[in-house]
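Researcher: Next entry: SusC/RagA family TonB-linked outer membrane protein (Echinicola soli).
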Amino acid sequence: MKRKNIQKFCTAVLALQMGFAGSLWAQEVEEVKVQPNQQMEYLIEEVAGKVVSKRTGESLEGVAVSYKDLSSTFTNSAGEFKLMVPSSSVTVALRIGDRLIKEYPLNGRTTVDVELSDLELAGAGKQFVQMAYGERPSAQVTGAMSAVDLTESWKNKANMPETSIQGTAAGVNMIRRSGTPGMGADVFIRGLGSLNAKTQPLVVVDGMIYDMNEYDGSIIEGYTSNPLSFIDIKDIDKVTFIKDGGSIYGTKGANGVILITTTRAKDLTTKIDFYTYGGVNIKPKNLPVMEAGEFRPYFTQMLASSGLHANEVINYRYLNDDPDTLGYYNYHNNTDWQNQVMNTTYDQNYFVKVTGGDNIASYALSVGHLKSESVMKGDDFSRTNMRFNADFQITEKLTAGTNVSFSYAVNNLHKYGYGVENISPLNLGLIKAPFLAPNIYDEAGVLSPNLYDVDSMGISNPSAVVENMQGENRRYRFFGSYNARYEFNDHFSIQSLFGLTIDKNRESFFIPDLGTPEEEGTNALVRNQIGGQVSRVFSSYSDSRFDYTNTFGFAHNLNVGLGFRYNKNKLEEDSGYAFNSGTDDLITLGSGVVTLNESYANVGDWIWMSYYADVTYNFLEKYYLDVTMSVDGSSRFGKDAEGGIGLFGHRFGVFPSVKGAWLVSSEDFMRNSPLDLLKLRLSYSQTGNDGIGDYRYLQTYQGSNVIANQGLVRANLANTAIQWETNTKLNAGVDLATANSIFAFSVDIYQNTVSDMLTYQPLKTTIGLDYFLANGGEMVNTGVDLGLSARVLDQDVKLTLAAQVGTYKNEVKELPYDQRTTQVAGGEVITKVGESASMFYGYQTEGVYSTSEEASTAGLMTTLPDGTLEAFGAGDVKFVDQNNDNVIDENDRTIIGDPNPDFYGGFSAHAEYKRFTFDAAFSFSVGNDLYNYVRQQMESMSGYENQLTSVRNRWRTEGQQTNMPRLAYGDPMGNSRFSDRWVEDGSYLRLKTLSVNYAIPVDGKIVKKIDVYASGQNLLTITNYLGHDPEFSYTSSVFGQGVDMGLPPQFASVMLGLKIGL
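Model: Predicted structure:
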């Protein structure tokens, strides 16, 4: 009998069964006879069961229970059902309408009682995991994947996707860049993916690659653009992390993949949801700096240390306490400068979503506006976003869909971080002398509206910088795609997706003359400065694939897919700088001195193409096998690359993967087991990294301007053998869940090996370049991911707890040189074979010399700036002489810290009581070291800047026991050099979100639902770190991790919100 006839026969049996349902429910179903020529070894079995509400115990009528498309039925008024299946070890699906509620493994049972919780009933479809192409029940997933549902994230102040998903997936280390709204986070999946290539994961939104603009640098220091900020969290249905695979994405998948699925219409009823919230952002606690009364004697000692005679020091106005003295009121204040640059601010958000449709078309339309202010005065983020998703059933076999979004975002900014300390409001709020005032006093002590200029020590006026310095980033993004699918029959189908991304970014800044010092420019002193940059990116994307799906003899399930992807990108970038406009009122690029103007341009084109194939197979829904291969080419690869294969005169990388899973819980020996799920997984995959930059295979030049003379200098040495990096991933995992998922557990052990790693290899000095990039290194990340969840209470009070923990060990295995050091914010990091990448590299210390005798006995010396040797004395830092030559110099540096955490992750709690729901989410990091560059500047005691109150304990007299060295202008002995004094434990535990929601009773006629909620963010942080915030990321580069350069800290927020459903 042919398969088609078998299906007809089974359908007739099922129709007969359903026709006699209800009053004849107790009758037996006629046995299906299997003809010998079907060649089936497994007889059809009957499964009977009952579906009830777990909360009330009431029977649930009308729930569809099915096995694939071959057998289905509905529960009757008593919640009972009977179903024919090929084996009592398969998994059946429960649906309401077209929404999946639950995948239920039979585990060899022929009689089952299924309890559905309110969460399962409300969250239909959540047990499906988004794959690269389509969805799959979670029990059938073979790889290490984490799915995060975001449909309830509107209850928190979740402006960006990163805000909601931090700490929700094991193995995903998400580090918020700063407290600047809209900047997002850097994401490291299972450790460090590269030294000099791209380190961030691939992002795919609704099947289309979402360009994260790794090429787009900001001219506003301390700011990093974040394309994910264009997506409103309320537009996202779920986020899936692919941690061990990614081979399907070839040279894009080395650092993992983040799949984002936006919301679509889930049924045909028109629904309107309105969301709004308003909140307060609370200024963080000030760092403890000296007040005026304490700073005056410190400042006096510093002046004396600089070489001034006592008679010269006494003439400084801040020491004259006579109110009739000229300038008295300008030098006798106690200004809290941190309060001048930070304050409490406000947020507001409005969002409307409309969904609906009919049998032909369904749609989801949303419009939103957000205004989020930073606690740094003058900094804020605003966004207006629109999205339209639609699905069309054109014919019985042809379907189509579209996903279109447009966003417009504006950041008002200041500059922060290393190299711009004298115009960074946050830094100036710490170092400015507290006896000065923001505004000028007249001789009668009357405060004028005029801001004070730069002080006599050359330190900017923080208030003038906040009020007059301007920085702005304006960004527009169109992201749209159209897709179509045609099913030839039950087995063959073809689908295509075409998309376009248009991204325009416009930045500008102005540094005023008033309140800031003059700086030495290339050809003149710079009084004020103007900068501007415009970048435009056009990206087209297409993806077409052919699928074959079939089931053989009920036992063998096969899907084969073949496809081709093409991605073309074009970048245009122009920037310019102008200097010394006639007044601070002229802030355009055309207003500067023409001979000082600077301009730059950059263009780039790159293409990526990929041929791919994937095969998924399972036998009896017990044994699963996924095989994938991608063959990728890119315009970034050199013609002489050694890896991969040659096609069409170019080099293509080949990236295979094999994944397998055994659903042990479906075996006969697991009958009547308390486990609903026990699955073993094993995978091997190779992925590539093409984030190596453009035109590395060419010798390039760049313009140079020296004393008004134009010329060209070499920018890059051609490397025609440059190619992708290869990441080989091994993973073994176990998934376990008890009955009704009361307890669920998942653990993965992995090893990721990066080979052909890009490294900077030294060149001869005669070439004119110090290094060039080439493939020639290896690095390994090994680790463990652990996920836990438990329903602790499930009666009137419901309580669910969950935890996600990740740990990894990074080790550099091979380099073309033994080690390399990199300068970072006055410190150094070292990358050497046998150690983790980018370890802090400096001097070890053992306290402070208490007496001159102790220092003399030690007999250590250091080299002064003039090249002479000077012995350390009382009050100097005890540096460890690593090579025992009695001279403290660069040869005594050693590894003093590791920015990689011992483990990291998050845990959460969800509780329900009547109409109330409560949610709490924590994130944590343990064992990571941080370089506190801010504290280094605030405890160096080498200049005229204000310092932390900790310098009260500085060494002052012979015999004093302290760990704080003496004050010394210019720090001639190098007491503040990069050492373990500045490396701290960065471990923290943060209450990321805390919310309570109340569902107001409504009649449901017009208003279907009203929710009011209160939420708090960052309400509690437990840490021993002495800086503003233990969580920050100045750059996605491996070499800048764990370096606190003084970015705005995260802050606590409290908000009230409302959701109305119509």
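Model: Note for the record: The CA atoms of residues 30 and 425 lie 81 Å apart.
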